[in-house]
Amino acid sequence: MSFAAMPGPGAARGLIRVSAPDSLSFPAPADDGLRMPRRAVAVGAITLAAILSVLDGSMLNVALPLISAETGMSPAASVWLLNAYQLTIVASLLPLAVAGERVGYARVFRLGLLLFTLSALACAFAPDARTLVSARIVQGLGSGCIMSSAAALLRAAYPARLFATGLGINTMAVTLAAAAGPALSSAILAVAHWRWLFSIALPAGTLAWLCAFALPATPRRPTRLDLPSMALNVAALSLTVIGLDRLGVHPPTGLAVLLAAAAAWLAWIRRDARRARPLLPLDLFAIVRFRLSIFTSLLMFATQMASLIALPFHFHGDRGLTLPQAALLLTVWPIGATVTTFFASRLLARFGAATLCATAAIVMVAGLSWILLAPDHLFLLLAPGLALGGIAVGLFQAPNTHDMLSSPPRDRVGAAGGMQAIARVGGQSLGATLAGIGLAQSDRIGPTLAIAFAMGLALMVLAVNLRRRRFLPAMERTGTMARS
After folding, report:
1. Nearest to 145, CA basis, from 186, 103, 190
2. Closest to 95 (Cα-Cα) out of 297, 235, 242
3. Which of 9, 292, 294, 359 has the most Cβ atoms closer than 10 angstroms to its Cβ?
4. Is residue 477 over pLDDT 60?
5. Which residues pair with residue 483 across a beta bridge?
6. What is the DSSP string of 327-384?
7. How sure is the predictor about 344, in pLDDT bands with cuts at 50, 70 and 90?
8. Alpha-carbon gap, residue 468 to 457, rounded angstroms
């Protein structure tokens, strides 16, 4: 998750208005990025908001059984506390990116933080299940505002020479948050009610909102809102995620929903292909670096999700490990990812994104193979395989995201960030579906088959990046854009 002559204050009129000024008492922005200390405050707001969004999902997973029991929701219905949030995000990203181009990404970001924080408070005091799910939908809209604008704001905040380093720091913070989520949730639930999981967003969200007034101004474009395209966007993306989710549970229903999603995609693409400024950023897919970065991102997120779903079943069923042993092993993965992310941005300038992403795919296959082939007599012998999986994720995320966000023009980074988030959610849905199909086969071979699916996805990442490395060697060195 992790983004210039500036127009004057009256250069554009938007739908979203915030009365406070963009700069307060901070020094004026430099020609390329913000000056310190304003940059530190702005980046702090972006990073804290991203951490809140990631923690929200990773902490809530642990609490679903408690919420289900207290609110009277069935276990299947309680999953919609996650699904409603994710679906709202994925359906709103591109329309909100267009809103950011129109009224300024900083305004959309601040509105998102306000919605996210207030809806978290509503979740904490929700009297029933329906109110709780409704508040989660609003919270997903707030998170969509944050995600759709964060990439453009991050790129505008940093000078070009520091963007890769800044992106690496942001990615490392988000990775740490994802790793800490389950442990933090368990610690809170041990001493407090599950409603406190939402309440802690209030002080952090308020702090991030105040810091967000240091965010840089970004160029605005007079973009007309195309309501039919927005409706097709919601239908295509929502039906795709729902169809992939249902495919592993009830294949006929999943296939029917995916066919409907395909029809919505076709209608959306045909409509936007005739427009000068389409909602679906078809112009960005003409950029070879962006196109390959998006595709490889989708595949790698699918690889990681399939692995992380399958591994606990493998540890418990095939290896006979206890829950504490499995939990101890699984912490090795995010630790490996976090440590490696710190070095990945330094390696990017020397080796290029394609080489690092191809290497990440090889390391991922090696790690999963180690886990499958390690002997049973000492469970800690599985740790190197998990460390390799985390290292693969760390090698991949910051370089690929940098390539994805640096290839479009600056005024299109918001749309690129929206597509990045869509690729993440779509990849996670694909990985979960494939893992579910593997696990459904039998208790004996299911986890192994799910891990094999993850290895197959990693090999697809390798193939895409070998092609990317062969066709884009000059751009990997110079950072120039290429168009097909």
Report:
1. 103
2. 235
3. 292
4. no
5. 287
6. HHHHTHHHHHHHHHHHHHHHHHHHH-HHHHHHHHHHHHHHHHHHHHHS-SS-GGGGHH
7. confident
8. 17
